[in-house]
Model the fold of this input.
Amino acid sequence: MKTEQIESMAKLLKTMSHPIRLKILCLLEDKELTVGDIQVEVQTTKANVSQHLTILRNQGVIKFRKDANFIYNRIADERILKLMKSMRELFCK
Done:
């Protein structure tokens, strides 16, 4: 494996490793959600959720789409979904 690949993976894993961001990714595995939807599930402030979504978005982990006054967030890359599924199988049985 090349150094830049290892560094890229380390950066991704560091981004995902925060408990709130990991929970957000778990919530986004099956569907798109708004900040408000995520806030209810994560039980923190909308501002805090928005900060974590920004970090995930800046790293290319999630994408969003606007629909009227709502912004829907979703996982951007199929590889992230596979990784989340693998982690769930390994750690959540």
User: Anything to note?
Assistant: The CA atoms of residues 84 and 90 lie 10 Å apart. The radius of gyration is 14 Å. The longest strand covers residues 62-67. The chain has one domain: 3-91.
